[in-house]
Structure formats: structure tokens, C-alpha cells
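Example record used in the benchmark description.
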Amino acid sequence: MAGLVVGGLAIGFAQWTGQSADAVLFSGEDAFGSLFSSSGSIVLSTLLLLLVFKGLAWSLSLGSFRGGPTFPAIFLGVVAGLMAAHLPGYAETQAVAALVGASCVSILRLPLSSVVIALLLSAKAGLAVAPLVIVAVVVAYLASEAMTAYVDSRVGAQPAEAAT
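Model output (C-alpha cells):
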């Protein structure tokens, strides 16, 4: 059932945007090249729809079908970074690097690995993006930890440390 819904999401994305359904269907590791090469011609609404459809498809796949967390998190970070590059004073390279790190740490909960992944993917930009990536990773990590603690307190779940 999850596979059918993911397929439907991919078809819906392709019909609405005229883009390939592959970006929604697969993990994203092969879609980076085409995404970057056409980033100047992709409109903001298409990036928003890609973020929503890919996020929904990935959630379904991760929860009940198949798939891992790393490459889709990086892909969604790239898409969010390309969207953020439309903000004034925020260049594309810095936006992508910061949001790749933030999305990775939000999903993986590995701050150092997320910084390294984001810096390796933006190596051509040099170390000038490192402070921005580090700040983005720390803020995203603290925000996701705070949201997890809030949800746990609202649901009545015990923190993992208290359960042992």
C-alpha cells in the first residue's frame, strides 16, 4: 500500500510540475546533478512541491516500505537550500551547505557527522562556509532535541535515559 501511495505522489508531482518523477521516487543521490544543473530555471513553487512530495514519500517509505535516512535527508536539505537561496543576502552555496547540515542533524541526530557531510558536499566553496554550517547544525540539533522533549512530555513518554 505504501508503494502505491509513493507512486501516486511521484505521478502527482510530475503532473503538477512537468518535472521528472524520479526525484520523488528514489533516494535522491542520483538526482543531485540534474537538480544543480537546472537550479536556475526551477521556479520556487516547483522546489516547494518537491520538498512536500519528497518529504511525504520518504516518510511513507521510511515508516513502512523501505529506504534509509541519509540520502533523502541530504536531498531535502539541498532542495530547502535552493529555496532559501531566493532570500536576500543568502547565496546558493551557503544556503545549500547550511540546510544540508541542518536536515542531516535533524534526522540522523549526529552533529559532527552532519557538519562533515555538509562541508564535504560544499568543499569547492572552501572553509568560508564552515561557521555557517556549524551554527546551522547546532541550532537544528538543539531545536530537534527540544521538540522531541516537548512531544515526549506531552505524550507522557519517558525519556530514554529514565527507562534504563
